[in-house]
Design brief:
- With about 375 residues, the chain is α+β, with helices and mostly antiparallel strands.
- It has two domains: about 190 residues, no CATH class; about 100 residues, name from scop, CATH 3.40.1690.
- The chain has a four-stranded mixed beta sheet, with helices on both faces. A two-stranded antiparallel sheet has the order 1-2.
- It starts with 7 loop residues before the first helix and ends with a helix.
Length: about 375
């Protein structure tokens, strides 16, 4: 016995379509944006060590001046150990630290903000931190804990530690001779060499992190696009939400046509004449010189609508004139509410003149 399975039933829910602009906008509003935290970390760390290298002279000089000042003004002061002097000493130390490291800290902060802005742009949203009951589900929590995403993050972290550790190890091995020679140096030389080695380690680690961050950015971009992908059904549903359900649109259009038809039929009693085909077309003409410069089409119809117009004409005793060419031309070239074009003035004027003449004859007959 063979079983026939329609594979399209399974393919329907497969997310194969790129995210629409509406889906991207909604994801952004919910705080789901393309961002690699490794970019921010690596750039700020590299900037910190670069600034530390560039400002090493200023920082060393500032620390030296502060040390001498504190030693001379406070530590040699026999009255140091009272609350007032200790408070002054503490405030001075804090002030010196701020003056020394504030330029570097502000620069690193600005670089971190710029790195985030270049990735995400300007965005303020509180949705990611809003409390959700679904986050308290222990089953979902365990699934996330042992998910493929967490395994990949662990692998990335271990790879990063291994590569940075290897780079630092290679550099330190090359500096072993210098490190061992420091045992016979003065304290000032030891500080200078130690600072240089530390800065070199930091710069190398920062450059490695930047390289890894670029790779991580492209990976995050791939994952972000993958998460935003939509199934064909989701694209169809979104299209329906934007454009409207075709069935509902059809009903709305039908309702609008009914309302328009009702209004048109209400205007027919104002007509001066109905020009017919005689069976296929009917056009209602109104002429008020004080309101319009030319005759106006106030209603028109074809087939069944034309028959209804003629019925209204009979009820309201509106004259009907048969003119096949003129009726069809008016129907095809003039919309309801528009005046007739100049090239049809003569033909319509003849019809109106005929109608006015017939009305005058009826009036005379009625008087007799």
């Amino acid at each position: 016995m063979e079983w026939l399975i329609d594979l399209q039933l399974f393919a329907e829910d497969e997310k194969t379509e790129k995210a629409t602009p509406r889906k991207r906008k909604k994801a952004r509003e919910e705080g789901q944006v393309l961002q690699s935290r490794e970019i921010n970390t690596s750039l700020t760390l590299l900037a910190a060590f670069v600034l530390l290298f560039l400002l090493s002279g200023y920082i060393g000089s500032s620390i030296r001046i502060a040390s001498f000042q504190i030693f001379e003004e406070y530590l040699l002061n026999e009255n140091l150990y009272n609350i007032t002097n200790i408070q002054i000493l503490s405030m001075n130390i804090i002030f010196r630290i701020l003056i020394t490291f504030l330029p570097m800290a502000l620069t690193v902060l600005i670089i971190g903000v710029i790195a985030s802005y270049l990735q995400v742009g300007f965005m303020i949203t509180a949705k990611p931190i809003q409390p959700k009951l679904s986050k308290l589900d222990p089953v979902k929590g365990l699934k996330k804990l042992f998910s493929l995403e967490k395994v990949i993050e662990l692998f990335k972290s271990l790879t990063k530690i291994f590569i940075i550790g290897y780079v630092v190890y290679r550099y330190v091995v090359g500096q072993l001779e210098t490190i061992f020679s420091m045992m016979a140096m003065e304290i000032d030389q030891i500080i200078i060499i130690t600072s240089r080695i530390t800065l070199n380690i930091g710069l190398r680690a920062g450059l490695v992190l930047v390289f890894l961050a670029v790779i991580d950015y492209f990976y995050q971009r791939y994952e972000y696009e993958k998460k935003l992908k939509m199934s064909k059904q989701e694209v169809k549903d979104e299209h329906k939400q934007i454009e409207g359900d075709p069935k509902i649109k059809s009903k709305i259009r039908q309702k609008q046509m009914q309302i328009s038809m009702r209004r048109m039929m209400q205007e027919i009693p104002k007509a001066d004449v109905i020009i017919t085909n005689p069976t296929h077309y009917a056009v209602a003409i109104q002429y008020s010189p004080e309101m319009n410069s030319a005759p106006l089409v106030i209603a028109k119809g074809q087939n069944l609508v034309a028959q209804n117009i003629k019925k209204q004409a009979v009820i309201h005793e509106i004259p009907m004139v048969e003119n096949r060419f003129l009726a069809r031309t008016l129907y095809e070239t003039v919309e309801i509410g528009q005046v007739i074009p100049p090239d049809l003035y003569e033909a319509v004027a003849e019809v109106l003149a005929y109608v006015y003449q017939m009305n005058q004859m009826k009036v005379k007959e009625a008087r007799l």
